[in-house]
Fold this sequence. Notes:
Layout: H1 2-20, H2 26-44, H3 51-75, H4 78-85, E1 88-95, E2 100-103, E3 108-121, E4 124-136, E5 148-156, E6 165-177, H5 181-196, H6 202-213, H7 221-229, H8 240-256, H9 262-279, H10 283-301, H11 304-321, H12 329-352, H13 358-382, E7 384-386, H14 389-414, H15 418-443, E8 449-451, H16 456-477, H17 480-495, E9 508-512, E10 520-526, E11 529-535, H18 539-548, E12 553-559, H19 564-567, H20 570-574, E13 578-584, H21 591-604, E14 608-610, E15 616-619, E16 622-628, H22 640-643, E17 647-652, E18 655-659, H23 665-675, E19 682-684, H24 695-700, E20 705-708, H25 721-729, E21 733-736, H26 737-740, E22 743-747, E23 753-757
Parallel strand pairs: 4-6, 11-12, 12-13, 13-14, 18-19, 19-20, 20-21
Antiparallel strand pairs: 1-3, 1-5, 2-3, 3-4, 5-6, 7-8, 9-10, 9-22, 10-11, 15-16, 16-17, 17-18, 22-23
Helix pairs in contact: 1-3, 1-11, 2-3, 3-11, 5-14, 6-14, 6-15, 7-15, 8-9, 8-10, 8-14, 9-10, 10-11, 10-12, 11-12, 12-13, 12-16, 13-14, 13-16, 14-15
Amino acid sequence: MRDGRALVIGAIAWAAAYAGLGDHGWWAAAAGACAVATLGVIVGRRRRGAATVIAWLLAGTAAFASAAVHVGMVAHTPVREFAAQGAAAWVEATVDSTPVVTPGRFSHGVYFDATLRDITARGHRYRLRAPVLVLLPSTTGSVRRGDDLRFEATLSPSDRPERAAILSVHGPPKILQGPGPVTRATDRVRAAIRSAVANRSTSARVLVPALVDGDEAGLSNDLRDDFRTTGLTHLMAVSGTNLTLIVGFILLLARWAGVRARGLVLTGLLGVVGFVLLSGPEPSVLRAAAMGVIALVGMSAGGQERAARALGVGVLALVVLDPWLAASPGFALSTLATAGILLLAPRWRDALTGWLPRWAAEALAVPLAAQVACTPLVAAISGQVSLVAVAANLIAAPLVAPATVLGLVGGVVALVSLGLGRLLALPAAWCADGLVAIARHGADLPLPAITWSTGAAALAMLVGLCAGISVVMPWLLSRRWPCLMVAGLLAVVMTISPPIPGWPPAGWVMVACSVGQGDGLALRVGDHTAVVVDAGPDPRLMDRCLRRLSVRVVPIVVLTHFHADHVDGLSGVLHGRKVGQVLVSSLAQPVAGVNLVRRLLARSHITERVVSVGESTTVGPLRWQVLAPLQDQFPDSDSPPNDASIVMLVRVRGIRILMLADEERPSQALLRETYGTLHADVVKVAHHGSSKQDAALVDGTGARVAVISVGIDNDYGHPASSTLSLLEHAGMAVRRTDRDGDVAVVVDSTGHLGTVVLGNPH
């Protein structure tokens, strides 16, 4: 079949391009050229039976040769050599992507892709073209896409083969020349889109620009996580959906204006070009534009044969022109989603039309087909399978088009009249708020996603499962009651938190919750009751941990200090629970954390009290003494809030737990000097296992168990290898939340101390 052959062509080209991205060098390009010449001779003989095989070989050879050439152009350049040496250089480069602000621990930075055109290093000057990543140390200055810059930088190797180096800039760059007129015009439109929703909610301000032109600058990590969990990630960045909606709207206007035939084709092409220019001609945008065009062509042509041909040829063209796409997860997801929509959705829609209106069948079939097609790859990337994705996409579908189209219209009109533009963009803002609400509520469900192993066997099983679903789905969707029963069962699974066998373990006295890079701990008081010490950075993760422990009453919350990784999850503790009092540190810094805590407590009518050193508190079987902070001022501290953290020595069921917070080494030394040897059975290690540990304090506790609350693959290198060595040398069994998930300290009926770990529960 022709559509089958076209898909094979695309798959062969993709695989060949991926193979060509290996370290094959220029000889691979030469070999590819010889192969093309040989195949040309074969084609000249016109062997009809070999035509299909020859086409496949030509596609694979062209993709492989293109990939090898691109690899050679990046690898064989002086920039790579200078990067390997860590050389400093003066460079001239053109900004290729929209600069992105990235928050750091102590300051913000900016990064963007650029094309390096001139480099002077080690006494030599070269004029060339090399793709690089540029890192600016701060947000000072104004750098725009299209600027020509000159600056001094240190070169370092890149972990991505399509980049020749990473450039860390010294000081503010000098702008040699601003962007061209086209870039300036599109930047004005992008700014107008932001202005059109600037007076709306935070959700609308960040999501509408992301929907229209891929401007993701304002998207928070929490919002990204919510959209990822609910399968709505494609709405936050430029995708084929964006192009389909915008170009479809333009074609609708053109038809209304009387444009027909070739005029519509020209209008559509101009719409695609405008979309690319507005979003920026970056690889992700070009990929999205290509996939959107393929979807439009496939659906408008009618029939799966044309759709498959468009997809296969489109993939071939893309990987030949830009072979780096062959190794891009984003390209793979776009391709799989497009394939699902073109090849699966029509049959599923037709099956549903037996008992649903056509518009409803279409709305359900499209996200369902895209989700099934992408599920194995999403699981390979994220380690989870979303259970709410189809429902979330179905509910979100009516909001996406008006948010995108009216956001664009409002921005364009705002160029002339800001007031009218904001009025037109108002429905777009409402729809954006609705999309955010769907993502947040979907992610808040007890079981929005299930974890899935990224091992080869597990992923192969998932591929087989999705293939089986694709075969069975038309039969299921054509029958109303079986379909509704399956949907109802899935809804029950998502909305009812399933019990976890053996959790919480019998005899637990403390649990360190897996809340990411932060602290969130529970000390058991009794059935359904616990004292909470810190709340972690994520309300959802903290809430889920307490739900797993069946904690409904929290008589006291202790916030050791006001850093975000200890207080931002407080709303998760307050959610649906009876909370008594909140104890806080004497140092009200940083202000953002203090304001957040006080706002939440005022809303919930909960009192706050500053602790005093030496005070003792008894709650049920728990008894603790506050050991620190021992000072009010920290003039020489690297982080005063850390050094002002509350330290508690907890006694429960015959054991002692030393609960350190984020104290730096001098504060830990002051603890040791003030109290002498602090004996404990369990140590909650300070500052997520950073290298700043007072060895004498830690070793002197004589503890048998050390618990480290730390996030997976965090940016700080926690826990430090020196700290792990210190704990192991002291004879402590080390438990850490990044590897073990929730960590429970248990004391059995005989008084024996042990630990039980849950594994990664999310």
